[in-house]
Design brief:
15% strand; alpha/beta; binds NADP nicotinamide-adenine-dinucleotide phosphate; seven-stranded parallel beta sheet; Rossmann fold
Length: 235
C-alpha cells in the first residue's frame, strides 16, 4: 500500500538521493527533482509498492519551476509531502566576513530561500488536495540566531531566512491542515557536509522518513531534528 506522494528536491546526490532511496523502499510514490535527470532512477529503484517520477528542476529558476510543475500536473493532482532539500553552501568554510563575495550571498539566497519559496508556491495547489499535507524545509543548526556559532555568513543567513518563512507558512496554512516544519538532518557526510561529518546519509534519511511519515499538525511551526524532536535546535 502506497504511503502517498512525496516530492523531494535535490535528489541527485547527498541527503536527497538517500531520502529518495529510503522513500521508495518504504512504499512512497516519489517525485524526484534534480537539476539534470540521468534517466535511470525510475528503472533502477522502483518496485510494485512505490514509483519514481523524475522531473528536471533547478529550484533557483522561476521559469524552470513553472515548467516542472506543468509537467507534474500531467501525472499528479495531489502531493502529500514536499521536501525542500536542494541547497547550497557557497562560501569556503570559515571565510572571514571581510573576504566574503556578494555572489556567495546571492547564490545562497537564490537556492536556499528563493528556491524554497518558488517551489512551495508552485506546490501548494497540489498539497491542498491532500488530507495530510506536509512541507518539510531542510534547515540547519547553522541557521540559529540564538546559538550563533562559527562564520558561515551566507549559508547561515539564507537558512535563517528560510526558517522565518517556515514559521510564516505554518501560521498561514494551519487552518487549512497543512503542516510546515523546519528539519535539520545533523552533520552528515555528503559533498556539503564533508568527509569528517559524523552521520551517514542513509541512516539519516531513514530517520527523516520516519519523522516525515509521523508528522502531525500539532508539530507545525517547529524546528525539528531528524528524530522529530523539537528541543535540539534553537531558532
Ligand atoms: N550535510 C550536512 O551536514 C547538512 C547539515 C545541515 C543541513 N543540510 C542541508 O541538507 C540539504 C542537503 O544537503 P547535502 O548535504 O545533501 O548537500 P549536497 O550533497 O551538496 O547536495 C545538494 C543537493 O542540492 C542540489 N541543488 C543545489 N542547487 C540546486 C538548484 N539550484 N536546483 C536544484 N537542486 C539543487 C544538488 O544538485 P546538483 O547535483 O545538481 O548540484 C544536490 O542534489 C541542504 O538543504 C543542506 O543545507 C546538510
Amino acid at each position: 500500500m502506497s504511503r502517498g506522494t512525496i516530492l523531494i528536491t535535490g535528489t541527485s546526490r547527498g541527503i536527497g538521493a538517500s531520502l529518495l532511496d529510503i522513500c521508495l523502499g518504504q512504499g512512497w510514490n516519489v517525485i524526484a527533482c534534480q537539476r539534470k535527470v540521468k534517466g535511470e532512477i525510475g528503472t533502477l529503484r522502483s518496485n510494485c509498492d512505490s514509483s519514481c517520477h523524475e522531473i528536471e528542476l533547478d529550484v533557483s529558476r522561476e521559469d524552470l519551476v513553472q515548467k516542472a510543475f506543468r509537467s507534474i500536473a500531467q501525472s499528479f493532482s495531489r502531493i502529500d509531502v514536499l521536501v525542500n532539500n536542494a541547497g547550497v553552501f557557497p562560501e569556503p568554510t570559515d571565510t572571514p566576513f571581510e573576504s566574503l563575495k556578494p555572489s556567495w550571498f546571492h547564490e545562497a539566497f537564490s537556492v536556499n530561500l528563493l528556491g524554497t519559496a518558488m517551489v512551495t508556491q508552485a506546490c501548494l495547489p497540489f498539497l491542498k488536495k491532500s488530507s495530510n499535507g506536509r512541507i518539510v524545509n531542510i534547515s540547519s543548526g547553522a541557521s540559529s540566531i540564538t546559538k550563533r556559532e562559527g562564520r558561515r555568513y551566507c549559508y547561515g543567513a539564507s537558512k535563517a531566512a528560510q526558517n522565518h518563512m517556515t514559521r510564516g507558512l505554518a501560521n498561514e496554512f494551519f487552518d487549512q491542515n497543512l503542516t510546515v516544519v523546519a528539519l535539520s538532518p545533523g552533520w552528515v557526510s555528503t559533498d556539503m557536509g564533508g568527509s569528517q561529518a559524523d552521520l551517514d546519509s542513509k541512516e539519516v534519511a531513514t530517520q527523516m522518513e520516519k519523522t516525515i511519515r509521523q508528522l502531525t499538525l500539532q508539530q507545525s511551526g517547529q524546528f525539528l531534528d531528524r528524530f522529530g524532536q523539537s528541543d535540539t535546535y534553537l531558532w
